[in-house]
Design goal:
By secondary structure, this protein is α/β, with parallel strands linked by helices. The chain has six helices and 13 strands. The strands form three sheets. It has a nine-stranded mixed sheet, with helices on both faces. It has a two-stranded antiparallel ribbon with strand order 2-5. A two-stranded antiparallel ribbon has the order 3-4. Helix 3 crosses helix 4.
Amino acid sequence: MNILVCVKQVPGSSAVKVDDKTGLLIRPKKGNKLNPYDLFALQAALDIKDCDGSPVSVLTMGPPQAMEAISECLWMGCDEGFLITDRVFGGADVLATSYTISQGIRKAGAQDLILCGKQTTDGDTAQVGAEVAEHLGIPHLSNVISIVRRDESSVTVKALQENLIVTETLELPCLLCLDADINTPRLPSYKRMKEMGEAKVKVLTFADFEDQDKSHYGLKGSPTQVQKVFPPEKNDNRVLYKGADDKLAAKLSSILKERKFI
């Protein structure tokens, strides 16, 4: 079984900056980290590798410094890494991002199982994984909390859907978006890092893709764009009442009736 894990490098702090003119996230060159949710997908893939020796590839889309994220994944135990990077891809929304990643996956070779984290901490849309699967034309399932069993043609998982835990069997190839706490992610191996030296990552650019229509990528391929970014307004107005419980309850009731909440 060939396994590919999609990961993303995200800012290491919540204090991120946004370009006022473009509405795009300003990605720092330092202080970044692997998206926490992707670590659960990585560990799930490595658990399968430990069990039956399945090769695990890892792929990310981002600026050149995202190479660090791929290296960390290789030191954790992944076998091959791919970095999708090109100025053509800059400013992509979830649709253009998912399409670009799907093109990268096609270039990386045939995959039986594609794993993604539930969502990213910088965008929080939880849409890219499912959209990648749609672009690839393969079945997918989100909020997966455990992989029950697998064979050469299918994988059976449990997933949290609304307030229910459902068991589903998907034919391979397929894509799974894993929920948090499905496992305990391992740390990168210092020994493996020393043995591998500088990680060898395959860089994929626009020139490598079969689809050479630039209108499908980056800002040109993004039907949604940020018009304005601003902090939420704070309202510190409040009225404080003191007194016995019965009097406070009566006061609260009268206020709710006056404002027609009840």
